[in-house]
Amino acid sequence: MINPPSIADPDRVVALWKTPIGKREENFVSYLDWQDWRTRNQSLEDIAAYKPNSFTLLENGEAEEIQGMRVTANFFSVLKIKPVRGRDFTGEEEKRGSQPVTIISYEYWQSKFGGSESVLNQQISLNGKSHTIIAILPPRFEFPLSVKDPLVWTTVAGEGSNLAQRGAQILRAVGRLQPGVSIESAQADMTRLAG
Hints:
Mean pLDDT: 93
Oligomer: single chain
Helix content: 10-25%
Low-confidence stretches: none
Strand order of the largest sheet: 2-3-8-5-7-6
């Protein structure tokens, strides 16, 4: 009760991956696979995709490597996480060629920007591209499937042409079970869909 989980109803959140028949391999998925899984499954409320990613932050001519993630626009809504300031990503911001935007962690907001309320709509340079800060996440947000604590999140739009290639296996997936659906039922549904 002192430190409630940052993800709502975590027992309903599941990881998804591709694996060869008869083997236990947690393989990445393509953006096109994720789209099919999201629209054609019958057991999950929604499925998001993500990719841990380091970024080069350029500031005043100095470069610094920071941890982050590229995510589909619905990533935080699947986890039921709402920013404490600003807004979530939109579907348009996930598309190739969209204006780059970023959401930052609460801790990064405090350490890098001194908790300034004017941080929203500021520009930061990530991997040589100017990104607009659109939101700040709640304090102590943790995503258990991430090895390192990300400081920034951008959309998968930064993956460019990879988004249009079925063979570009670059993403991980996470979903939320529909009420009353068991893990076993969801597995059977996803196995059917994979077939």
